[in-house]
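User: Hi! I'm working on a homework problem where we have to compare a predicted structure to a textbook description. Could you give me the structure for the chain below?
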Amino acid sequence: MAESGLRHYLIITLVYWAFTITDGAIHMLVVLHFHQLGYAPLSIAFLFLFYEVFGIITNGVGGYVAARIGLNTTMNLGVVMQITALAMLAVDPSWLSTPYVMTWMAVSGMAKDLNKMSAKSSVKLMAPEGQDSKLFKWVAILTGSKNALKGAGFFLGGVLLGVGGFQFALLLLASLLVPALLAAMILLPKAMGKSSTKAKFSQFFSKTPEINALSAARFFLFGSRDVWFTVGLPVFLSSVAGWAHAEVGTFLAAWVIGYGLVQASAPGLLGGQKDTNGADRGPDGGSARLWAFLLAILPAGIALGLMQGWPPSLVLIVGLLFFGVVFAINSSVHSFLILLYSDRDKVAMNVGFYYMANAAGRLTGTVLSGWMYQIQGLEGCLWVSTALVMLAWLSSLKLPNHEQWMERRKEMNSTAS
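Assistant: Happy to help. Predicted structure tokens:
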């Protein structure tokens, strides 16, 4: 069982990697191509509006659907939808109106969230039962490598656009997903993640207090990042710090790759954590609170540095390095806890609910980023980011420490039996 679990985990990881590269690449292709066509920045941003909005819906519906038909099916469906979206954008340029592109970017967004929810939920099923430290390592590697490869996808999208053009790049990316789809269809269990009882949609909103609190913390955490990353940071680097567009793009891509590498390394960075019996364990609610509190210091410190008139490029580069490390560890802790708090029969619905909160946080941060930068500049975005991180910390106060969770799990198991 352990050997088959590891084998299935590796297959899921490879499929997720292939998908993630195309997800990063399609973002860069759309931004650069439509910039070349003369689209204004706001118009380009609108091309991604449905991508984010439908992510919220997909995570909710997808978790419920996966519980009924299995995670392998929803993961494969996500890959098929991504191949379709890539192919439908590689049409005659005269077809590429704003509504047309928004529609197929929405399909790509739904595909991404189906794939992500399915892959992350599957880790719970593949990891050996009761080995929390191994579960933490597996989910950290999957999550961290995904973000590193998304940064690589940004780079690949720019290269392919320059080498072969928009249509060539999209069709090549679609062809890369076909082997991944076939591998998942042939090599993974067909009923993986399917609930043993008939899932009801009402159960999707019936969560334990731990999952509700963690989902709230996730909402605020990702809102705190995107409130200054999405609009404020790139615009500030270009218009105030005087960076060229290529420098901004390269730096942000490198930051995403580094952020992913830190996520993957989080179990080693946090060190071997032990329970009262000396056995290895993963992070707990105390870990989430500690790293959220440390994170809140960083956007506040960057804002103060800018307000003091220190060199903006230096302040942002140094601040972003520390912010990336601490944010990545926060994210890895959350990704482990959602699996820890979910039993195997409901993991798909719980992870879907959690990533629905994640997507809602990103959307909220994106909207706030444009508004706050317009009225208060980057400093205003950073102070809002600080407030959102503190709200994530407050939400984490309801998360149990390891001993409390062990008692809680015993209670739930006894009630279920």
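For your comparison, note the following. The chain is about 80% helix and 0% strand. The chain has a mean pLDDT of 87. Good luck with the assignment!
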